[in-house]
Automatic annotation (TrEMBL):
Protein name in the entry: Transcriptional repressor NrdR
Domain ATP-cone: 46-136
GO MF annotation list: ATP binding; DNA binding; zinc ion binding
Basic and acidic residues biased stretches: 167-176
InterPro entries reported for this sequence: ATP-cone_dom, NrdR-like_N, RNR_NrdR-like
Stated family: Belongs to the NrdR family.
Presence of keyword Repressor: yes
Region of interest (Disordered), residue spans: 152-176
Pfam family of the protein (one): Zn_ribbon_NrdR
Protein species of origin: Cellulosimicrobium funkei
Function: Negatively regulates transcription of bacterial ribonucleotide reductase nrd genes and operons by binding to NrdR-boxes.
Amino acid sequence: MHCPFCRHADSRVVDSRTSDDGASIRRRRQCPECNRRFTTIETASLSVVKRSGVTEPFSREKIVNGVRKACQGRPVNEDDLAVLAQRVEETIRASGSAELDAYEIGLAILGPLRELDEVAYLRFASVYQAFDSLEDFESAITSLRVDREEREAAAGRAAAEAADDAATDREAAPQP
């Protein structure tokens, strides 16, 4: 690491700490030539291997742009897209691989997009998974309906349990 002050070709690491999110390392360095200190931040780079075999650096902006097209006319704002892109990147980094296929990134997008907006999910999935027929759409819609019904049933059970717990607490409380 070159010293930014005197351009000496070497420096010594004085302290290393991981960032709060764990995605980067902050290093405090000291130049042996001029004795000045400076900080570097190191992150692991991710590469995407496209279908054509071309490798390019991972970009959150490409995820946002691709998903933005599927979200046109939907009640999804830029902050929602940024959070989705961050979740996708965290999922990809958690895999531990430095090089990923574009297909794997698309799979990582589908889950968070499904939670964000079902219509945008269908739009994205229809292109990404190359829906060929109405049956493909019907299958995806049926899957979405089943998931929604399961979520609603679970929420209803949780609400009923909370009401039962509250009633039990009221019965067990001493009366004045």
